Amino acid sequence: KVGVSEEVLLAMMNATQAVEPCIAEKTLTIPQGETLEIEATYTVVSGNVDDGSALSFTVIHPLTVGGVTVIPSGARATGRVTTSKRGSTWGRAGQLAWTMEDVPAVDGSSVPLEFSRSQKGHSKGATVATAVAVTSVVFWPAAPFWGFKRGKDARLLAGTRFEVTVRRDTTVRVREVGC
After folding, report:
1. Residue 176 pLDDT class (50, 70, 90 cuts)
2. Cα separation, 63 vs 168, whole angstroms
3. What is the Cα–Cα distance from 126 to 151, expressed in whole angstroms?
4. How far apart are CA 152 and CA 61, in angstroms?
5. Cross-strand pairs, 24
6. Considering Cα of 59, then 64, then 65, then 70, what sign does the dihedral take?
7. Buried/exposed code over 65-96 (b: 16+ C-beta within 10 A; e: otherwise)
8. SS3 for 8-52, per residue?
9. CB-CB neighbours of 100 under 10 Å
10. Tens digits of residue pLDDT in 58-78
């Protein structure tokens, strides 16, 4: 209406179409045994979690296949507590064991991971035994009270890093810009 020629309008429409990116979707396979570096997101104490509780880990470096990122850094990997025991009487140490489950890929699919770990807290057994022996010499009726001394809980500290592996070949759909 303002006097712009039809050729200019066509040129403007064609230029807009040419600027739109070409997006192609393709399928990539993350091979079994590929490794990822992760770190514990939060500190976990064996006396404060139950068997079956979920654990959160963060991917440190992106995983690429053929130059394309399939698992970004910052992705949240999930683990599961398999054994959790708090430190107990007579100085016995607590125990914490877990196994990795999965991490989301860029398409939202689940990539199964393989890794398991077990660790113990600090045992006070030797200290308790020594204290019982010494106390029984000095005042034997008080010696059994040392049995109430607890061992330390096991801890998984936030920021602790691990290298985990992909459990099986996993197919991921990715989008690439610029065909």
Report:
1. confident
2. 15
3. 11
4. 33
5. 176
6. positive
7. eeeeebbeeebebebebeebbbbeebbbbbbb
8. HHHHHHHHHHHHCCCEEEEEEEECCCCEEEEEECCCEEHHHCCCC
9. 23
10. 999 999 998 889 999 999 999
Structure tokens at 171: 């197919």
What is this structure's pTM?
0.67
Which three-class secondary structure state does DSSP give residue 174? strand
Q: Do the beta carbons of residue 71 and residue 59 sit within 8 Å?
A: yes
8 A C-beta contact, residue 81 and residue 51: yes
Is 8 exposed, middle or buried, given 0-12, 13-18 or 19+ CB atoms closer than 10 A?
Answer: exposed
* CA 69/CA 143 separation, integer angstroms: 62
Phi-psi region of 40 (alpha: psi -120 to 50; beta: other; left: phi over 0): beta
Termini Cα distance of the chain: 38
